[in-house]
TrEMBL record:
Homotetramer; dimer of dimers. The record marks T46, Y109 as: Part of a proton relay during catalysis. PANTHER family: 4-HYDROXY-2-OXOGLUTARATE ALDOLASE, MITOCHONDRIAL, DIHYDRODIPICOLINATE SYNTHASE. Catalyzes the condensation of (S)-aspartate-beta-semialdehyde [(S)-ASA] and pyruvate to 4-hydroxy-tetrahydrodipicolinate (HTPA). Belongs to the DapA family. This is 4-hydroxy-tetrahydrodipicolinate synthase. The active site is at Y135, K163.
Amino acid sequence: MEFGRLITAMVTPFDNQGNIDWEQTARLMDYLIEEQKSDSLVVSGTTGESPTLTDEEKLKLFEFSVKHAAGRCKIIAGTGSNETAHSVNLTREAEKLGVDAALLVVPYYNRPSQEGIYRHFEAIASVTKLPIIVYNVPSRTVVSMSAETTLRLAQIPNIVATKECAPLEQVAHIVYNAPEGFKVYSGDDSAALPAMSVGGYGIISVASHLVGVKMKQMIQVFQEGHVQEAAKMHQELLPMFKGLFECPNPVAVKYALNEIGYAVGTVRLPLVPPTEEEGERIRKLLK
């Protein structure tokens, strides 16, 4: 399964009552696919506010996204949680709806051992034929999946990639030792190019909602061997990469999308909209 090098972790549009806005979801998907050139979309990931979505909402999002994408891009379903049985059931249901892959986060809050992390992902992989991307994000899960655990998981045939928010040293170690075809994606926009410099494959991005075309150009330029040009493009994009995370994600990116005419609504509690000062800083990023 080829997911491409630029994957957007899509926000979930809400209406004024806080319900999923299906019309705006369709419009946003068209924009991300056709205008920002996303190769794949993650639906109901962290940026999609997965912690506040019910399973019913998630499954409706998966079904809707598959139908609306209509083969224009791959749909990757965020089906991970900190309960293995829950993740197993949600992944099974997502597979029935025709998604192309599942993104599974390291279990949060429970603080499992490396063996527990391995068995969690192994259990989910054993019940589905979907390609699986495991997701290591220590800032949110407290526990970090080690490179050694990732490499063990890479031996499972349908675990095909990792989304890494670990230090560059770990990214390089995984790239060097992983089986052929196993892909490493950066989960941090500002680390996308550095990760690719040590063999990373691409980026699962938030900023691509706004600068996807420029990011894709940067990746292409780098792939063509024009490293200094790619570095310059990365430097120009860095204020956007950093600025979108001054508020808890996806507060800033949803605010920015509303500013440019995509009515994705606000965030659900416990997240809150940006302050006036934060909003001004976000608006400056768009100039």
